[in-house]
Write a structure and sequence with these properties.
305 residues, alpha+beta, Uridine Diphospho-n-acetylenolpyruvylglucosamine Reductase, domain 2, Uridine Diphospho-n-acetylenolpyruvylglucosamine Reductase, domain 3, Uridine Diphospho-n-acetylenolpyruvylglucosamine Reductase, domain 1, 3 domains, four-stranded mixed sheet, UDP-N-acetylenolpyruvoylglucosamine reductase
């Protein structure tokens, strides 16, 4: 694909050559190991660079996409046009009394471990969630009875105009696996969590138990996007899929996990189109058999090949 040298040079002016990759394979940056190329893959190092990239995209009429750390995401085989932002270099975590402030590129797992070290309780549920802080807010991530909205007090965001704002948690409309962050076009830069004082051994025991449950039940040995479907009211997605006899069902290199029916795993160099086709097959089968519509939890972005 031909490189837009004008845009490339502008991006380098904002950040640096090391932080701007042209025609980058996104399969190298997603948990599913799926996805075509990004025109520009950019890893800014501070808040001002993020603001300036958003303003540049606006002035150049160029699309930009926030990738997060690629954990709850399928990128299509045709890749993504314009600028793809990854905030992995914004990963600082700090504590003041019982408040933990984490930048959006930090892994939420690492934030929960930081809280453990500081003997703060409230983030134990996040010890097995693979996403970034920004991604966790984006979808109000949760597990084992806890979710982000239980502990979040505020977030610093960049608006679609490139302005910096602090928003209170209750302004983000955090509901089950959802927020208004995408509707508002926000890019999360940092999050503030209010936790409670606890005892190290008790917090660690809970985290060890949740880690064991996750590792024993989830197919972590294969690339995947995590849990594919939201929990339908009154049901469990995995149980519906299991009762539809779909475990082991395979399209190309994508397979409904034999270990946990709620996961689709990349067992043999799957393409994104195979993965998506299998998602649709599962949805149609469950709807036909049980009359229940499974809603995707995973995001699908990018272009077809």
């Amino acid at each position: 694909m031909e490189i837009n040298h004008h845009l490339y040079n502008k991006l380098i002016e904002i950040t640096s050559k090391e932080n701007v990759l042209a025609n980058e394979e996104l399969r190298n940056h997603t948990y599913t190991k799926l996805g075509g190329n990004a025109d520009f893959y950019v890893t800014p190092e501070n808040y001002k660079e993020v603001q300036d990239i958003v303003k540049l995209a606006n002035s150049e009429n160029t699309t930009f996409t926030l990738l997060g750390n690629g954990s709850n995401l399928i990128v299509k085989d045709g890749g993504i046009r314009g600028i793809v932002l990854n905030l992995q270099k914004l990963n600082e975590i700090k504590t003041e009394e019982n408040v933990v402030v984490a930048q959006s590129g930090a892994r939420i797992i690492d934030v929960s471990r930081h809280a453990l070290k500081e003997e703060l309780t409230g983030l134990e549920f996040a010890c097995g969630i693979p996403g970034s802080v920004g991604g966790a807010l984006y979808m109000n991530a949760g597990a084992y009875g806890g979710e982000i909205k239980d502990v979040l007090t505020s977030a610093v965001v960049v608006t679609k105009e490139g302005e910096l704002h602090t928003v209170a948690a209750d302004e983000l409309d955090l509901t089950y696996r959802k927020s208004n962050i995408p509707d508002n076009g926000y890019i999360v830069l940092e999050a503030e969590f209010s936790l409670k004082n606890g005892k190290y051994d008790e917090i660690k025991a809970i985290m060890d138990d949740l880690t064991y449950k996750r590792e024993s039940k989830q197919p972590l040995e294969y690339p995947s996007c995590g849990s594919v479907f939201k929990r339908p009211p009154g049901y469990f997605a995995g149980k519906l899929i299991q009762d539809s006899h779909l475990q082991g069902k395979q399209i190309g290199g994508a397979q409904v996990s034999r270990k946990h029916a709620g996961f689709i795993v990349n067992v043999d160099n799957a393409t994104a189109s195979e993965y998506i086709e299998l998602i649709h097959f599962v949805q149609h089968t469950v709807k036909d058999k049980f009359g229940v519509a499974l809603e995707r939890e995973v995001r699908i972005i990018g272009e077809d090949k």
